[in-house]
Structure formats: C-alpha cells, structure tokens
Amino acid sequence: MFEFAPVAMAITTSSLNASRYVKVNDAYLRLTGMKWEDIKGERVITSGDFLSPQRLERRRLLDEEGGYELQEVELTHADGTRIPTLISAQRTEVGARSYDVEIILDISARAALQREMDAALIAAARTDVLTGLPNRAGYDHFIASSVASATSNGNCLILAFIDLNGFKYINDTFGHSTGDHVLKIVGQRLRDGCRESDFVARLGGDEFVVVLTMKQQDSEAAFPAFQRLMNTIFKPMDVNGTELSIGAAIGTAHLDAGVDTAETLLNRADRCMYEAKLIGGVNIVTDIQLA
C-alpha cells in the first residue's frame, strides 16, 4: 500500500537535527523529482533549515502530541521550484527507535486557483462596472508605473482629461438609465478610437482619461489623435429610439520626465480641460498652448 499510494509518503528518522530518509514511495519521488538512490539515508533538510519556526512547531507537535495534520509546507523540487503542499505526520515507535510517517498532498492546483482568484478580485476592483473600462483605482495603478517607465526609457507620455459637455442635461431630462447608456457608448467609442497600446479609463461621473505612449519623434501625432476622439464623441447616438448628441472638453498634458509625478501630470491636464470648458464649444486645450 505504501509503495503504490496515490499521494506522496515518506518515512524518516525522528531526530531533530539529523532526520534522514528511511523510505519514500513513487508518488513522493514524482512530486519532488528526486531519485531514491540519491536520497536514501540522506538528511531530509539542509543544515539551518531545522531552525525555522515552522519546522520547530511541527517538531514540537510530533514530540508532544505524536503528530500534526494538514500543515502548509513548501517543498523544493529537484529543479529548484517550490511546491506548495499540505503535510500530515504521525510519530511511530518501532522497538527502541522512532520514525515519522509523512503524507504529502500537492496543492499546486489550489494555489494556482487562489492566485487566479486574487488576480480576478484585483481586476474587478480596478474596473468600472458600467463601462468595463479601468476605474480610478485602475488608472492610479497604470499611471504610476507608466510615468516611471517613460521617465526611464525616454518615451513621450501624453494624458488627455476628458469631461463631457451636456451630460447633466441628458441625465436630468431623460433619466439615469439613459445617462448610463450614454456613458457606455462614449466609453466604447473612446476604446474603439484608440490603439490597443493606448490606455482609456473612466475616473467617475462623466470624466474619462486617455493616455498615449509614443516615441518622442512621434509625439506630434497625439493632437490629431485627440481630435479624432473628439469627433467620434460628438457623433449623434441613438439611445432607446432617441437621437442624442454630446460634446466634450479635452485638456492634454505632456509628461515632463524627471519633474512630473502621476499627480502633477493629471492636475495639469485637468487645468487644461477647465480652460477648454471656459472657451466653450468643442475644444481641446494642451499644456503647450498654456505654457
């Protein structure tokens, strides 16, 4: 039964400082990538590892209670990778000698699933439920790394702050459901009008941001790109049989590498957007114009 058990099992001597392999089954060898001829009679752990608090606690349970159940332990595969496991152990006396019998469960799949769940929860926390775009948290996460990256590699980073014109009227006149539909359409138009490498987010309300990253020599293409986005926002949209139009004020700011932070970059784009609001109509104002 021991040799052919489907789970990894090992029998070792019970000495604290010099626990050695007595017997392992095939499942253990498959799990660890080890060969029996290489570990037979050898120490289970390298010197110093036995002093880890986790191992000392497992040793205490064996010495005082005769065993433990389902302790989380990371084993090291022969190739150096770490294997998350759950280990249960039982102290067994044979004559004057004592041995520890371990049963090891590979929980790599569970650990991978947990990582996927954690990633999904993080993604959900950074996504705007209404539009499916990144939300403020998603933007904050993106812009911090993008500013650092552009500062180090010399790329041009251009941020556009977009505030819709006439959205409050639509929301108040036709109701929040219609307003939500308009925001969805605008979000989709912005996403469709950008390159795959561009970043689009909804900060909240009727405020959106678009971040372009490009080579310095290509930065002049940013303004025409924002003009195209403005035009696509301005196109009439059909919402439940009603044709609606909406405008926008856009303020843009170019990253001043080594000077700007994520916060100052957004603040400058925000000021440009308000300048565009004051001018009225459908306007784009850049920080270069205000310099």
Q: Mean pLDDT across all residues, rounded?
A: 86
Order of helices and strands: EEHHHEEEHHEHHEEHEEEHEH
Secondary structure tally, helices: 10
Computed Rg:
31 Å
What structural category do the secondary elements indicate?
A: alpha+beta
- Indicate the overall shape: elongated
How would you sum up the major sheet? 5 strands, antiparallel
Give a count of the beta strands, DSSP E runs of length 2 or more.
12
Quickly name the level 1 CATH class of the largest domain.
Alpha Beta
Output the CATH homologous superfamily of the largest domain.
Reverse transcriptase/Diguanylate cyclase domain
Q: What is the number of independent domains?
A: 2
Question: What would you note in describing this structure?
Answer:
The structure is a single chain. With 291 residues, the chain is an alpha+beta fold. It has two domains: 8-111, Beta-Lactamase (2-Layer Sandwich), CATH 3.30.450.20; 127-290, Reverse transcriptase/Diguanylate cyclase domain (Alpha-Beta Plaits). Helix content is 41%, strand content 29%. It has ten helices and twelve strands. The protein has helices at residues 26-32, 36-39, 53-65, 108-125, 136-153, 167-174, 176-192, 222-234, 262-279, 287-290; strands spanning 8-13, 21-24, 67-76, 82-94, 97-106, 156-165, 199-204, 207-214, 237-239, 242-244, 247-254, 283-286. The strands form three sheets. The chain has a five-stranded antiparallel β-sheet, with helices on both faces. A five-stranded mixed β-sheet has the order 7-8-6-11-12, sandwiched between helices. Strands 9-10 form a two-stranded antiparallel sheet. A hairpin with a 7-residue loop joins β1 and β2. α6 (167-174) runs antiparallel to α7 (176-192). The chain is elongated. The relative contact order is 0.10. The model has no long low-confidence stretch (mean pLDDT 86). Residues 155-290 form the GGDEF domain. It comes from Devosia epidermidihirudinis. Pfam families: GGDEF, PAS_9. InterPro entries: Biofilm_reg_signaling (IPR052155), GGDEF_dom (IPR000160), Nucleotide_cyclase (IPR029787), PAS (IPR000014), PAS-like_dom_sf (IPR035965), Rev_trsase/Diguanyl_cyclase (IPR043128). This is GGDEF domain-containing protein.
